[in-house]
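[Meeting: bench + compute handoff]

Bench side (C.D.) handed over the final construct sequence. Compute side (W.E.) agreed to return the predicted structure before the next meeting so the bench team could plan truncations. Sequence as handed over:
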Amino acid sequence: MKHVLAAAVLGALISSGVAQAAPLQGQFRIDGSDYDVRVGLDYIDFGPFLPITTGRFEVTTATLDFAGLDEGTIKDLIALGVGSVMLDDFVEFDGKEAWNFTLTDIYPGVGTPAGCNNTPGSLCTPLLPPTFEPSPFTLLNLNPNGSSVSLSVGGYVTNELGEVSLWSGKFTSQLDQLSSGQALGRILDDEFGYVQSSWSAEFTVTPDDTPVPEPASMILTGLAMSAMAVVLRRRR
């Protein structure tokens, strides 16, 4: 009877050892608050501007694990192109430095070079020299005197225990006095080289479907299995 009880206890230990704590999930929206963003042909500089390589943001709305967070930092993106990257701590919340938002994907813009004009509703995605591959930016003409610039990105985030969630984000900057054609002309002009305006971004975070045992749980499981072996040897 004692052996049966011991085995049951050890089985419970093993079960609890592989149990998963909750990975991060929720949605949040951030903006630059008092700081603008500068968008060049292949870079984003979040204010405060260079030589500082990180910008400041304010959380405007948030749900679930991100509710109650106020401010944080975001890294500038230099030599920006479409494709895979690996940038740790891309987004960092004040007081949650153990959370690691890793940027892994920069998605292509959804416009075309032909859309880089002054027609309301047109979608512009310029080509990047010297290879003339599509840019990750999408410029949308809102009216003859205004447009927006957007960028879509993705990656993964780990919490304090190393549990993984996936995230997607979209950045938007409003250009109230410039059409997409005018904005692109200013970016390509050596005298300017960028457009500057306010910005915001929306993020969605969902738990990864692939379960990964926590380090502490793996240690507990190992101890339980060792104790089980001792019980079995004594029974013999």
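W.E. noted at the follow-up: The chain has a mean pLDDT of 85. C.D. will use this when planning the next construct.
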